[in-house]
Amino acid sequence: MTHTTLAPPAGVETPPPVKVKRRFGRPSAGRQHHAGPLTYVLLGLAALVSLFPLYWNLVAASHSGERVVEAPAPLLPGPRLFDNLTFAWNQVDMGEALINTTVVAGLVAVSTVLFSTLAGFAFAKLPFKGRNAMLALVVATMTIPPQLSVIPLYRIITDLGWVDQLQSVVLPSLVAAFGVFFMRQYLIEALPVELVEAARMDGAHSLRIIWHVVFPVARPAMAVLGMLVFVQAWNDFFWPFIALTPDGNPTLQVALAGLGSGNHTVDQAIVLTGALISTLPLLLVFAVLGKHIVGGITSGAVKS
């Protein structure tokens, strides 16, 4: 089969090809962009600035208390890291404090995510009288300083006999107003009301809708909220220091308050060693679950 090319008629000039100019600054469809050298330099500087406090904590934990407070401060690791770790671990019961903190942070994170998701779904998609007023009341509680509730809360746990018990730290933190507002804002955009109505038309009751419709849609936001609440509960000091005692049933932050004290002086190297011990579990969690957390966040950022 032969192909023939039609020539233009005699006397007719062929117009020159038209050149299409691409607009400046607008990339073509499907074009992939690559980071330049300046981007890597800025990212490297940001990483160094972020990691330097952790590095210096490690350096301080490997020196004596006298060397840590000297000027200039040490910038290279010393030979006393394992001695300081052993001393800090034995001076207070770090093992019990780690277990207590894991239990408290885990229970607070799970309960806050669960209750905040349920309340956020109700405020976002369920019509009921006084919904806006109740939401405004919940948001208004975030403006109240937590120090104002210390005295009545301490009287309550004293009457219940919960002083120096973990439930005195867990129960006041079962739900947070920020979590309710956060989940409500996410579910307003991410959960179509038609999906809930379709489930009801199929005969699904409320618990089944929550389990099979709400939770799968809210999973990315639940992962973010759980991570934030877990870190906050892990590092919480003010209320646990009042409700618990360093010699009784402490969390890590309460145990750190009794580190390094003796002979009317505080060994800063031992205190920083305890801080290093309390930071390592969080770093381990992020190292193991960081990819899943980021994957959950990004999966909620794509709209179909």
Give an account of the 3D structure.
This protein has 304 residues and is mainly α. Helix content is 63%, strand content 1%. It contains 13 helices and two strands. A two-stranded antiparallel sheet has the order 1-2. A hairpin with a 2-residue loop joins strand 1 (261-262) and strand 2 (265-266).
How would you describe this structure in keywords?
mainly alpha, 304 residues, 1% strand
Short description, anyone?
The chain contains 13 helices and 2 strands, in the order H-H-H-H-H-H-H-H-H-H-H-H-E-E-H.
Globally, the shape reads globular
Q: Please provide the count of β strands.
A: 2
- Quote the average pLDDT: 83
Proportion of residues in extended strands: under 5%
What helical percentage do the residues reach? Answer: 55-70%
The largest sheet has its strands arranged as 1-2
SSE topology string: HHHHHHHHHHHHEEH
Characterize the largest beta sheet: strand count, sense, and whether it forms a barrel.
2 strands, antiparallel
Poorly predicted runs are none
| Rg result | 29 Å
Number of helices: 13
Q: What structural class is derived from the secondary structure elements?
A: mainly alpha
Distance between the termini: 47 Å
